[in-house]
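Q: Now give one record:
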Amino acid sequence: MRRIRKRYVVPFCVIGTLALGWYLAFVHRYHMHVEHGGWVVDFSYIAFACPFCLGRVERLTCNDRPISLPHLTEEDYVALTLKAPVGTFETRAGWTEYRSHGVGTVRFQELGDPISAEELAQSYYDVPASAWPPPRKPGTPSHWCFASAGDFSRWLDPQQLDHLSWVRPATAPASQAGSHGTDLAPADDQ
């Protein structure tokens, strides 16, 4: 058995340390698991890379049910942002996944009038686009999330995310408060 000469030990250690550091910084995927309010997210990312661009939302569920991607097309709004108790996520027309703007426990402030029985029955209520951060009405179920697409901002049951139309109304101007036309009807009825 040959022994490594002493003059090679230091360069091997330096090269090995640099290679390990490069791997841990630019190749290895770190994992985050966050649970809050019935929501669960598993997210992986690379340490020195853009977490939005190269991060992966591997699991996004609410009450053990996966959160489906809404069917967005170029005629609809290009992007949909989702603020949930476990972070902020985005998807766009043509994407096959959610991407994350930040994973962690999020708490929402409750303001204004309590949620009405009608809003509970329809599983969502609209929020003025100018209101930021999005006000959450007292009595809103804890598992509801905030979704925003273009001019529309809503608090909704996450299972309704793909059942509501996100299309801009054709008959009413989007700038008028409360004039959302047929966009609030379930997509299946249109």
